[in-house]
Amino acid sequence: MRILIVEDERRLAQTLADLLEANHYAVDLSYDGESGLDNALTGIYDAVILDVMLPGMDGFAVVRKLRGESIKTPVLMLTARADTEDKVNGLDAGADYYLTKPFHTQELMACIRAITRRQTGVGDNNTLCFGDLRLELGSCLLLCGVKSVRLSRKEFEIMAKLMSNGAQVVTKETLLLSVWGYESSAEDNNVEVYISFLRKKLHHLKSTVSIRTLRMIGYHLEEGAKA
Ligand code: CA
Questions:
Q1: How far is the CA of 79 from the centre of ligand 1 (A)?
Q2: In this predicted model, what pLDDT tens digit does every residue of 140-183 receive, in sequence order?
Q3: 188 CA from centroid of ligand 1 (Å)
């Protein structure tokens, strides 16, 4: 899963990024409201952590514009201010949750799990399920019955994206941006290579789930066929 952090206090932004990366999330950083909005408008993120007091455009304006463009990515707002009015403004603007600084990292992680769970269908025990597959988000283990394989970071991110979209098609471009990010020079065939690794792992697991290719478009999972 990929998280966007929009926070102008660079030390805090980096601390959050380190924490999320240690918990197997991919992270992009923006340090002001406008670039945060530009990034968030791509719709590739599973959640946005958004500070309220930002140079240029504040967090309320960012979330309002996002919702105005029908981007439904869950937004967790962060602020040093604990006024009830601010919380109401944030939630009215379209944020999903509100956390007041300073907060405990465990509380932040619980919030991230909660808001992404709603979005991506992550079930109890922090797992994603599709067909006979279970993907443990904490350990990057992909399980099928009694068999399991550990996925590499990129394999994990691709599989999580596919599983959270179920049978819906995920475009190659979405996979490239959400797994490799903007600044990467990765190309379509990087995606193809990892898809082939994943297919081998599905075969090893003897899963009935397979990854189908829609030529020139993308991939989706399908249940029932032998991998
Ligand atoms: Ca700030």
A1: 7
A2: 999 999 999 999 989 999 999 999 888 889 999 889 888 888 76
A3: 37
